[in-house]
Amino acid sequence: MSTITENRGDPVTPVTPAVDTAGVAALLERGRTLTTPVLRAAVARLAPPMDAVASYHFGWIDAEGRPTAGDSGKAVRPALALLSAEAAGAPAEAGVPGAVAVELVHNFSLLHDDLMDGDEQRRHRDTVWKVHGPAQAILVGDALFALGNEILLELGTVEAGRATRRLTAATRRLIDGQAQDISYEHRERVSVEECLEMEGNKTGALLACATSIGAVLGGADDRTADILERYGHHLGLAFQAVDDLLGIWGDPVATGKQTWSDLRQRKKSLPVVAALAAGGQASEQLAELLAADAKKSDAEFMDFDEEEFATRAALIERAGGRDWTSQEARRQHATALGALDEVELPARVREQFLALADFVVVRER
């Protein structure tokens, strides 16, 4: 992996942070507690059957419409939005509209991504398109995107206008990233730089927005919001690097997805592109297999058995793609923390930003 390391700067010593599990759990729970009632009220505005379809997606009801305590996700973005309001000296509640808006846009992207990627499982249950059909997945996703902007603009303040501009810019970048991701699936080669740009758009943009939107609503100036956004951007890259590792080697029981999930979708994720850029026998063998895979139809590719996906995963690991991606997650984590040194923050808020960043790089789902 020496070529990649030289192109990306000095390697970071892969030290696993000690996560304040209880503190992070409290932050995530606060995000859910403050945002869920507002989120439910927003979804209730949708016309039937979109309200029920959205409720199913969020885990509030099952496929038959019965109330359920389903998994509604990690809630990292709402937690960041509330914390960013406190970074501006405002109460956490000031960030609630921003937290809800970001969560609505995030779930708009999940509904569409699941359909485009053909994912049949999310959070241990069938995805919306699988249960309610592709048309409803598209319509409900569009509706959630519109609701996100509506929630902010209803505030009618200058700060709300500034927050909406940040949200729409982040959404455009998120869509750019998804388009790049799809276009890479059938390419034989994608560079590490292209992959990082795509992931910075697809994941980093919305996490960056979450980390600044509460501060904007709380009255922060653009400099403060921009620094917090930079923290969120690099946190997003760390988050996605961990997701890329889980997408190949994650435990399906923890992730709620199939084994070798990203390999089944031909994704050019960081472990793959890093392995291809590494050189050496394993890298060359992997390149030959992926070049042959790119010429196969989706039906032919999905006929692969577990052993064939396991072979590709083993080659990626032998070529160094797994180790490099793990190291990159930690490098992005360190860069995110470095951004916080440029802004004055209450000590408690700084510690909580640090704890959330640590959580991102050691999670298992």
From TrEMBL:
Keyword Transferase part of the UniProt annotation: yes
Transmembrane segments: none
Gene Ontology MF annotations: metal ion binding; prenyltransferase activity
Family matches, as Gene3D superfamilies: Farnesyl Diphosphate Synthase (1.10.600.10)
Domain of life: Bacteria
Protein's GO biological process: isoprenoid biosynthetic process
InterPro entries registered for this protein in UniProt: Isoprenoid_synthase_dom_sf (IPR008949), Polyprenyl_synt (IPR000092), Polyprenyl_synt_CS (IPR033749)
Keywords: Magnesium, Metal-binding, Transferase
Family: Belongs to the FPP/GGPP synthase family.
Identification of the protein by name: Polyprenyl synthetase family protein
Organism, scientific name: Streptomyces palmae
